Structure formats: structure tokens, C-alpha cells
Amino acid sequence: MAGIAAYGAYVPKYRLGGETLGWNSDQERAVANFDEDSVTMAVAAGRDCLRGLDRGEIDGLIFASTTPAYAEKQCAAIVATALDLRRDLFTADITNVLRAGTAGLRSALDAVVSGSAQRVLVIASDHRQGAPRGDIERNSGDGAAALLVANHAVIAQWEGSHSITENMLDSWRSAGDPFVQSWEERFATEEGLERLVGETVQGFFQKQAIAPADVAKVALYAPDARRHAQLARKLGFHAEQVQDPLFGRLGNTGAAFPLMLLTQALADAGPEQLLMLVSYGDGSDVLAFRTTPSAGRPPQKGLGLKGHLESKRVLESYELYARWRGVWPTDDAARRPAPASPSVTALWREEEKNLRFHGEKCNSCGYIQYPPQRVCVNCQSRDDASPVPLSERPGTVFTYSMDYIAGTTDTPLVIAVVDFEGGGRVLCMLTDREVDEVSVGMPVEMSFRKLRVVNGIHNYYWKAVPRRF
Question: Percentage helix, strand, coil, to 5, in the chain?
């Protein structure tokens, strides 16, 4: 029977919170760094989900987001490459609606049930932007969730689903708009959220012949904490049945939000518990899963939602966040020459080392080099090496330098030489770092990040980050 075999999540390191000058709120929300977007966060969540698993067994990947990096180009292909998945798998992007995450999950379940795939990775990732210091910005958050759908060895079996689709213009963002917009709150709540979700949930209960009391935990979408609590009561759920929505710690992560809550429900669940997933956006989706005897053991090897939430840093000022996100224009770019456009041919040719992050291991002496070279620097053998993936290897800083005049968003630019466990060395940028904590010997890991966007081309690469545990 189809179900969920593994799960993972990613929450960026940084937060806006009570200590942030200019934020004017005690409410915390997760914010992506300047070099993160929905694609990089999707890769991070996928890695969290797949730790310890054979990536060669993945048959498909579905990427869901309302904020994809490209309007015309498949982001799932980038994510699959960075995760070092097989080339003979199907990929798809599901975008432009808050229900994208549950739509992707339902599609993966249908594929597994039909037999067209054995294991499909579903990743929902979002970093929606509201107008500066408005309610949408205050209640939103950045993050991603990943669920591995399979037909065997599942920790939660698919019990059923129900959906309603209705054209509802309560929140929207047209092409070219930087910020999400919304209509009058009472109309959006009563005629949109409460009516459509209520109708969908009741339809699911009737279809499955169950009642709210039969549900152990419900991962429920809502735009803010007040409406979340109000909706849960109207649906007939008691407080102990409702998965903590994490408003004030994470924020509403858009298409990823209900899936992120589900990952925590799975982490906390015991065997034979009914978990319910409810999304909203031009209608509503309800999916239910019943945990199997293997639920809760062994624990996931990644940090998961809880681990990422506990590993955080509150930004000093709202101005820094605004600069990261381009909330308002600055004249910084006018002070330096425009960056050169990346070569599309070079990006394609160097995909193995830049996106998959493969080095080479000498077949004669076992020495590992990055980037790959024709000649082994250790034994001088020529053209005799095998690819070796390096993205999952932990490392330490061998040496570093700081450039205060590089003109980067993240000043100073920290360049580090990283030595990997088991061999291999790379020269790369160090991000998510605090300047006073950078040191020789500091434990780091690799993270898929965005270098820059020039001529509409998103140039991705791997950077080092301090370990978050």
C-alpha cells in the first residue's frame, strides 16, 4: 500500500524577532539568507529526507512552490541534479497555488498506486513576500518540506483523500508583482478559508465514515495564528489534536506549510495513529495517513523540523533582511560594474562538479581531488580516476580569508579552504557564518546556494556553512 517512507524539512538559520531593530514585533519568523531561494531550500529539505537512503532508488521528483526561481524552466530538474539523483526519472513542477504541496503529494501517491513509480520524492518550498512590515510579511516564513512516497517500508499508510476546487480570489500575486496581495479579511476568512476547508473536511469525513475524534493530529493550513485556532475549533478539533502551527517561531511557509507540519506530526506519532493533512488555495485538499508499527523508530537521521527550528540566529536589524530580499531599492549596484553573464555552455559542461558536486578518486593511490583533474597530484597517474560525491561529506576549515571590499551582499566575503573527512579539499565561500565565530578547524558542511542572477540566469553552486548541531 502506498504511503510515506521518509520525511525531512529545512528551516533557514536566520529569524526576524523581538531583538531585530526595526521589526517592531516579538513574533519570530524564519527568513532565507540572501543566497537562498525556493530551489536551494528544496535541495536542503531533500537532503534531510534522504540521509542514509539509497538515492538510486528514487524514480521521480515533484517540486511544489508559489515562488519558483524560473517562470519558464523546470526547477525540479535543478533540484534532482543537486540531489545527485538518477537521470532516468520523471520530474515535475507544480506552481502558482498554495495547494501545490498537497497536489504534488497526491500526484506522487497516485503514481505509486498505479505502479508507474516505486519511490517519488515530493518537495514543497516557498519564500513568499508581503509588503514591508505588513501582516502578510509578519505572518509568513521561509522553509521547505520533503516527503518520500513509496509502496513498501512505509511509516504512514495512505488512508484516503478528498478535494474541492473553486475559483477564489482572496490572495494573489500577478506576474511581476513583488508582494502577495489579499482582499478584505472577513470575506477571505468566511467565504474562503472557513467555508471551503470546512466543506472539504466534512466531505472527507463522510467519504471515510469517520469523525474528528478519530484523528490523532491534523496538520492544518491557515494564514495566521488567530484564524488557525478559529478554523480548528469550527472543524471540531480539540487543541491536543491540532499540530502546533509554529506561528511566532516559523511563520506560514506557503505551499510548504501543511507539509512541514505533517513532518513534525510524523516525528511525534506513535503506531496506528490517524494523521490528517489539510491545505487551502482555490479550494482545499485533505489527505489522511495512518502510521504503521514502524512509526517513530528508528528516528530520522536528519535534523528535521524541530532540529532546524532550534538552530537559529536572530537578525540584528530589519534593514539587513530588506537588503537580502530587495524589499526596497538601493544604489549599491550602481557603484560597481555589472557582473558578466554566466556561460550557459559552461554551466552545462560543468554540471557534474558544480551542481552534483563530484570530485574524483584516483584508482591508483586513492587520492581525492576537487575539481577533477586529468593528472593525480599525489601519484601523477593520468586519466585513471572515478567520480566521488562530496556534498554529504562533513569537513573542517583548514584556512580562510575575509574580503571587506568585494562588494558582496554578505560583507565580508569569507573564502575558506575546507578539508573533507575521508579526503578531498575545496576552496569555496563560507555562508550563514558569524564573523567572530569563523576559525581554523571549525566544523562545516556543504550547502547548495545561489551565487547570483544575471540576465535571468540563476547560477547555483555549493558553499560551506557551519554545522547546525
Answer: 30, 30, 40
DSSP 382: B
Residue 457 CA to residue 452 CA, distance in Å, equals 8
| pLDDT(335) > 70 | no
Rounded distance, CA 301 to CA 447, Å? 17
Give the lowest-confidence range in 163-167, 271-275, 294-298, 337-341. 294-298
Query: Which contiguous run of DSSP H or E holds residue 208?
Result: helix 195-208
Q: What is the pLDDT averaged over residues 76-85?
A: 98
d(CA 402, CA 135): 38
Grid look-up 476568512 returns 189
pLDDT for the residue numbered 461: 97
**Cα 82 to Cα 357: distance, rounded to the nearest angstrom:** 8
Q: What is the pLDDT of residues 124-144, one digit of tens each?
A: 999 999 999 899 999 999 999
CA-nearest of 102, 93, 83 to 63 is 93
Distance CA 464, CA 207 (A): 49
Which residue stretches of 314-408 are H helix? Answer: 318-325, 344-349, 351-354
CATH architecture assigned to 3-325: 3-Layer(aba) Sandwich (3.40)
Which region holds residue 180: left if phi is over 0, alpha if psi is between -120 and 50, else beta?
Answer: beta
0.85 cut: is pTM over it?
A: yes
User: What string of DSSP letters covers 148-204?
Assistant: EEESSS-SEEEEEEEEEE----SEE--TT-SS-EE--HHHIIIIIIIHHHHHHHHHH
Which DSSP string corresponds to 219-234? EE--SSHHHHHHHHHH
- Name the nearest CA neighbour of 14 among 311, 244, 224: 311
Number of other CB atoms surrounding residue 287 within 10 Å: 23
Helix (H, G, I), strand (E, B) or coil at 17: coil
Residue intervals of the chain classified under CATH 2.40.50 are 335-356+391-466
Q: Domain 335-356+391-466 maps to which CATH number in 2.30.30, 3.40.1000, 2.40.50, 3.90.1690?
A: 2.40.50
Distances (CA, A) of 389 to 54, 165, 257, 279, 397: 13, 43, 31, 37, 19
Residues for the chain: how many in total?
469
Give Cβ neighbours of residue 54 (< 8 Å, ≥ 6 apart). Answer: none
Across residues 398-420, what is the average pLDDT? 94
> What's the rounded mean pLDDT across residues 88-111?
97
What's the rounded Cα separation, in Å, for the pair 292 and 270? 8
